[in-house]
Structure formats: C-alpha cells, structure tokens
Specification:
single chain; about 850 residues; alpha+beta; Topoisomerase II, domain 5; Gyrase A, domain 2; 5 domains; four-stranded mixed β-sheet; four-stranded antiparallel β-sheet; 43 strands; about 25% strand; elongated
Length: about 850
C-alpha cells in the first residue's frame, strides 16, 4: 500500500471517529452504532507482526538449540523432568509413558508424539554420538524401524547426561515459569558437557536451519583446554585439536576443505562415505562389503536402492546382494560377477547411492535468544562464557552456604563458652520466642544463631562435640578463604573449567569413529578429463564448440582447405582457438566484461556440428556479444593482460585480478561507445616485453611494455597508436623479452588468403602513441590485413574463411620477405569468401602417414 493511499485512509478513519454515535443507514433503516472501542488496523502490518511473532516463537522455543547447553527446549524439559523424578543412571528404569506424561503435564504442553520422538532420538546410538537417554526396549533401528509405543519401553538418564545437570541445585542457572506459571523450569542447563558439538543438532526454523555435526569428546576437550591456555588461538590451530566431525555411524569424511570451511565460517559441505572392504573368494569372484554407512543413511532404503538400480540395469556387474547385519555391526554383502572390477562398481555405488553423500554444515544456534551462525572458536568461547558464569555462581552459592554455616558455628562457640548462662536464660523463659529474644539481647546473637542454639541437641555439650565444632569451623574458614580467592582470580575459575573438562575426557572419552581422508572427495571432474589439445570455434552469431585437433590434417601451402564447421544461414566463423581441455578461457565481451569458463565446459562436437550458443554457457545481456577469448593455464603473479582495442587504445592489468570470476562476470576495461577489444595477450612477467600491433590498412607499430603502467579493471587505458582515417587495429602480438629478436618473424595474413613472414628487426622500436610504419603493400588482389602473429619455424597456422572452410599449413612453407612486400598466396578463397580468422598452432600434433600429403 502506497503512502498516499495510507494517508487518505487515515483521514477517512479520523472522520469516522469524529462521527461516532451518529445515525447511519443500514439496509434502508436508520441504525445507531458506537465505534468508540474499535481500532483500525492495516492488514499488512497485522500480518507482519503476527508472522514475526510466530517466527520468533519457532526459532526460540522449538527449532534451534541454545549455544550454551546444545539443547532445544523439548530436550531440556525431558532431561529436567527426569532429574526431578530422581532418575539417575543408577535408578531402575521407568515407563516412557510416565516420563512423557510428566513432561507434558509440567513443562511442554504439546503433542505426546513430539516429546516421545525427541526422547527416542536421545536413546539411539546411530543418531547420538553420546546417548543422553538409556533406553530399555525397542527404540528403533538404523533400518528406519520406529520405536515401540511408549507404554512398552522404559528409560532412565544415561551416566553422561548427569554432567549436563551437575550443580543445577546450586543456583547456577536462571529459571522461568512454565506454561501455566505453576512451576519453575530452567532457562538453560549448567552443561558441564559441551553438548552442542558432541551430539550436534539439526532443525528447521522459519527462514533458517541448523545442521551441526557430532564430534569426539576427547578432541573437543583438547580444543577447550587449548583455548583456555591461549585465548588468542586461531581457528586453524584449533583444527589441530578438533580434527573434524565424528559421526556415531563412523564412515569416512573425504577431504578436509569442507571441514575447514565449516570451522572458519560456520558453513561447509562434507563428503561422507561409508566404509567398504573388498573380499576375494577362492573362485576369483570379488565382493564389496559395506561395514559402515554415512550418518543418517537408512540401511534398508540403501539396500533397496541398489536392488532397484540393478533391476533398471543402471548398476551392472552385481550378482547377489545380502544384508548380514547382526549385533556385531553392519555387514552388507554385494557380490560381483566373475571378472568384474570392484573399483568400477564401487565408483557407481558412490555416484548413484547414498554410500557417499553430502552433509551440509550450518552451525546456527541461539545466542542470547537470537539465531547466529558461529565458527568453531565462537562456539567454544560461548561454552566457556557459560561455564564461567555457572562456576562463578556455584562458588558464590558454596561461599554463602559456608558463611552461613560458619555464622551458626560462631554462635555455637559463644553459647558453649557461656553454657551455664545460656541454659539459665532458656529455663527462665516462658516459651521459645522469649528465650530467643533473651539470648539475642544477652549475647548479640542473630536470629539464625539464636534459633540454631535453641535447636541444638544436648549431645553437642560434650567435649568431643566441642572439638568437632571447632574443627568444622576452622575448615570452613579455610574453605571461605579458598572460595574468595577463586572469585578474585579469573584464572582459577578457568582452571576449574579445565580440570572438569579433562575429567570428562577421562570418564567418557573414546576413540574416533569417523576417519578423515584426503582421497576421493579431492578428485574433481578435472582429474577425470584428458588434457588434450582441441580446437575451439566461435561463430558471428555466438555458436561455440570444441573439436579434437586431430580432426584436421596438415596441408601444403596453396591448398583449398576442408570444411571446418557447419554454420546456419548468414552466420560465419568469427574466431578459432587452440587450447587444452583444462585451460581456462577468459571470454571478453563487446561491453568490456569478462567471463571465465574451462575449455572442457564447451560441448565437444564433430566438425560439421553447429555447436552451442555461448549465451547458454555464460550470462550475456541482449546487446552483448563475445569480442575476444584468451586461454590461461595458471593465474601467475607478475604476469599481465595487455589489451588493444580497434581504436588503438592499450591497457595493462595484472592477471591475478581475473583469477576469481563468478558466473555474472566482471568489468575488464571501460570502452568508448564506438570501440571494442580487438586483442588481449599475456605478458611474460619480466616487464621487458614488447607490443606489436597492425592495422587493417597495412600500418604496424612496435613499442615497449614499459610505456604502459598497470591499471585496474575499471580503467579505460591510454592511446597506443594514432590511426589514420578509416583505419582500425586488426591484430597484435606480445614479443616475449626472452626471445631472440633476430630470430623473431612477424606473420601477416590478408583477407584474400595472402601472407608473408617478415623479420621483427625490420620494424623499428617507436614510442607509444605514434602513427607507425608500413607493414605490407596492399591491393585488390590481397585485400585488407586480417591478422598478424609472432611465429617460428616449427609453428603451424590455421586459416578459416567466413564460410567455414579451413586450411592448416606449416609456417615454414611461407616465404620470409620484406616489410613492404605483398606476400604469397597461402589459401585459395572461393567467390565471396574472405579469411575470417587466423590461429597459430605452436606444437605440431602427430599425424598418420596416410593423412599427410
């Protein structure tokens, strides 16, 4: 709703309010109404407010764990209720229905199935790394079997759970009223156990979710101790103690990068695989034995999935499938046909089944009742903050208790020293209140001391009892001194946290179940691709394709070429590039943007195929097309991209600026409206390279790279060559400083198929911005210049025409002649064809003898 309409509505509402109690007409009859108690509420405001209230209720009261104890409200209430019922790990089991009823009636007014479901999960060893409930009966299985009804099962707290509730009766935590305000329930548990990391958590709130994996207790304790010893410790150093998640079902985490991402940022992706063994029978047949599954994978569904894939013939080579799981552990036997390679079948199992899957880590928890994504160090710091507060409050509680007891003992000592007078006062009093008042008046006792003396047994008057009182008092004074010292020194409090954490490791620590490897997950798609040379072609209408270079055979100079590509009507081949499959292609557009793709991402086709529109691979705008493409193997420091535009503008930018380009691309150069990028090349990184540029009308320019300073991606560049009328730059090249200039040859190709090689030294070195010198003598027979290349004797070139005809020939077949010469015919062009593109092949591929002419 716009502000104008809202203002008008408010004015109307004010007018209505002013006319309260006035006569209005309803169904043609007068009716009087009183609007004094009504309020006008805008529906969008009410919806926003209501939905926000609902969202926060779900986030805080249901779906997300508290960072301090790692528990959601339902789990906290179950454990607190069991503690209130006195159900320790030593007490007899009680019916689950009784526990659920207690939780529902006192603390959690929701469905019994939600409470029982949460309780069941805390008792499942395949879901919880350290079970918090000791279950007796059928509590479900890894096959997805549901637990028996609550009337059949029994439960009690596990021993380790008592560490979550330790010291709960010592004023260590805050309480709040339950749903009907008849009882108090804890806001958070004291949580000596770092439960958020140990058992993890998962939940879906409104607009957010959490998925924290479980961890090994010993490793987490080591991390806590390291953080206490060095509060400035880095996350990478903490990873040296906490290696990674430790799932209750074991398995293997393939690759550490996901762990590092999760611990550093709070988000990461783990590749988790089951544990397999290969057994070979006497008859030579192999079997794949699965002994561990990834976390939260249903075993029955996993086996069913394999069976369906075999039936659909998507998995081949399997002759039998059996589940031999027993009380000793999981054992799934996948027998292979004779002669089948187990590694190939296993790869397909990883690909098509949950034998390998992804665990998405989102370490989201409530911090001060607000959801927050935390890294590893932040979670440990929040745990230490909570334990610091708990221990501080516990020490204060014990200090107050000790002081109160010492206060009473001080009264006892005064009374014993004056026992005759005390007895006389008591005997002379008519009742206890008078006796208490007289004692207070006579000895300045406090109310508490006087009452304790009145309640004192006669046996405390013996000499032995007096000694015990003195001994207890002296011990209390030492304890008070010790507790005061703890409160005065933070290091002592952290020392207690450290001691208690180490004790947890001693009592409950165990070996890691999940193995972390650098294998399989580290294998990327690039490891499966053959890094061979290919030809990449791009047409004027934006069709791109990748063709094996061996599809083209070498021809002698003057041949008519072969048809290289099948183009649609009115489309012509624009560019052709020689690259390897694992090279990166930086694709520069007419708008000065750059995109990045791998060569293998371009579809491989035959010579006659049309290819795929480049706009379906990268995100081009409607009036944007590809201008230039260059290949990069590695984004090395000190190397630069050198830009040359049609209008003679040049620019140099560091290659590393283009190393990380997202799918939307990035700005590479700022261009004038009538200009476009013509050439982009890579410098050697020495700073001593030279730039050679040639124009359509036969002018060339050679100048030093030093004359152009390095610029950012948004810069426009500087003038490189001053162009004459109706002339444009058509080709350029970088002359590596490590080349012997006396041996360098410049290859010039014209649109009618003529070309020549010329010594570089015939082109003098000039200053940037000049008008250049003559490069070739042109006429109607030669046509205009198409491109120039720096070549040597071992190079080959490909010429491709506007109609898609291609010729491939050796450079040494082309004559070396003077700078002002016309050149020799390299390729015969038909009718209206023109040379559209020139590609240099630096390494000659091996050809069969019958392919050579």
């Amino acid at each position: 709703m716009s502000d104008d309409f809202r203002d008008e509505d408010k004015k109307e509402n004010e007018e209505i309010n002013e006319n309260d109690d006035k006569e209005i007409i309803v169904d043609g009859l007068p009716k009087t109404t009183d609007l004094s108690n009504e309020q006008n509420v805008y529906i969008e405001d009410e919806i926003k407010s209501a939905y926000l209230d609902y969202s926060m209720s779900v986030i805080v009261s249901r779906a997300l764990p508290d960072v301090r104890d790692g528990l959601k409200p339902v789990h906290r209430r179950i454990l607190f209720a069991m503690n209130e019922m006195g159900m320790s790990h030593k007490t007899p089991f009680k019916k689950s229905a009784r526990i659920v009823g207690d939780v529902l009636g006192k603390f959690h007014p929701h469905g019994d199935s939600s409470v029982y479901g949460a309780m069941v999960r805390m008792a499942q060893d395949f879901n919880m790394r350290y079970e918090l409930i000791d279950g007796h009966g059928n509590f479900g299985s890894i096959d997805g079997d549901e637990a028996a009804a609550m009337r059949y099962t029994e439960a009690r707290m596990a021993k380790i759970t008592e560490e979550l509730l330790a010291d709960i009766g010592k004023d260590t935590i805050d309480y709040r009223k339950n749903f009907d305000e008849s009882l108090d329930e804890p806001v958070v548990l004291p949580a000596k156990l770092p439960n958020l990391l140990l058992n993890g958590a998962n939940g879906i709130a409104v607009g957010m979710a959490t998925n924290i994996p479980p961890h090994n207790l010993g490793e987490v304790v080591d991390g806590i101790v390291a953080l206490i010893d060095n509060p400035e410790i880095s996350i990478d150093e903490l990873i040296g103690y906490i290696k990674g998640p430790d799932f209750p079902t074991g398995g293997i985490i393939n690759g550490r990068q996901g762990i590092y991402d999760a611990y550093r940022t709070g988000r990461g992706r783990l590749i988790v695989a089951g544990r397999v063994e290969i057994e070979k029978a006497k008859n030579g047949k192999e079997s794949i034995i699965v002994t561990e599954l990834p976390y939260q994978v249903n075993k029955s569904r996993f086996i069913e999935r394999i069976a369906n894939l075999v039936k659909q013939k998507r998995l081949t080579g399997i002759s039998d499938l059996r589940d031999e799981t027993d009380r000793d552990g999981i054992r799934i036997v996948i027998e292979l046909k004779k002669g089948e390679e187990s590694e190939l079948v296993l790869n397909n199992l990883y690909k098509f089944t949950d034998l390998q899957n992804t665990f998405g880590v989102i370490m989201l928890a409530l911090v001060n009742n607000a959801p927050k994504v935390l890294n590893l160090k932040q979670i440990l710091e929040k745990y230490l903050e909570h334990r610091y507060e708990v221990i501080t409050r516990r020490v204060k509680f014990e200090l107050n208790k000790a002081k109160n007891r010492a206060h009473i003992l001080e009264g006892f000592k005064i009374a014993l020293d004056n026992i005759e007078e005390v007895i006389r006062i008591i005997r002379a009093a008519k009742d206890a209140n008078i006796a208490k008042a007289n004692l207070i008046e006579a000895f300045s006792f406090s109310e508490i001391q006087a009452k304790a003396i009145l309640d004192m047994r006669l046996q405390r008057l013996t000499g032995l009892e007096r000694d015990k009182i003195n001994e207890e008092y002296n011990e209390l004074m030492l304890l008070i001194e010790e507790l005061n010292a703890i409160l005065a020194d933070d290091s002592k409090i952290y020392g207690i946290i450290k001691e208690e954490a180490i004790k947890l490791k001693e009592d409950f620590g165990d070996d890691r179940k999940t193995e972390i490897r650098n294998t399989r997950a580290e294998i990327t798609i690039e490891d499966l691709i053959k890094d061979e040379e290919v030809v990449v072609t791009l047409t004027e209408k934006g069709y791109v394709k990748r063709i094996p270079i061996d599809s083209y055979r070498s021809q002698r100079r003057g041949g008519v070429g072969v048809n290289a590509t099948n183009t649609i009507e009115d489309d012509v081949v624009k560019d052709m590039y020689i690259a390897k499959n694992l090279d990166t292609l930086l694709i520069f557009t007419t708008k000065g943007k750059v995109f990045s793709i791998k060569v293998y991402e371009i579809p491989e086709t035959g010579k006659q195929a049309r290819g795929k529109l480049i706009g379906n691979i990268i995100k081009l705008s409607e009036d944007e097309s590809v201008s230039t493409v260059i290949k990069v193997r590695e984004f090395e420091k000190d190397r630069n991209l050198f830009f040359v535009t049609r209008n003679g503008v040049v620019k140099k930018s560091e290659l590393t600026l283009f190393g990380n380009i997202n799918k939307n691309g990035k700005r590479a150069i700022r261009l004038n409206d009538d200009d476009e990028v013509m050439y982009i090349g890579l410098t050697s990184g020495t700073g001593e390279d030279e730039i050679f540029a040639a124009t359509r009308n036969g002018i060339a320019m050679r100048f030093s790279e030093k004359e152009v300073r390095s610029m950012g991606t948004a810069a426009a560049g500087v003038k490189g060559i001053t162009l004459r009328d109706e002339d444009k730059v058509v080709g350029a090249a970088i002359i590596n400083s490590q080349m012997d200039n006396a041996e360098v040859r410049i290859l010039t190709i014209t649109e009618e198929g003529y070309g020549k090689r010329t010594k570089l030294l015939e082109y003098r070195l000039t200053s940037r911005g000049g008008k250049g010198i003559i490069n070739a003598k042109l006429n109607e027979k030669t046509g205009k210049i198409v491109d120039v290349k720096v070549v040597n004797e071992n190079d080959e070139i490909m010429l491709i025409t506007s109609e898609g005809t291609l010729i491939r020939t050796s450079v040494n077949n082309i004559s070396v002649i003077g700078r002002t010469a016309t050149g020799v015919r390299i390729m015969k062009v038909r009718n209206n064809e023109k040379i559209a593109s020139v590609v240099k092949i630096t390494e000659e591929p091996k050809l069969d003898e019958d392919e050579q002419e």
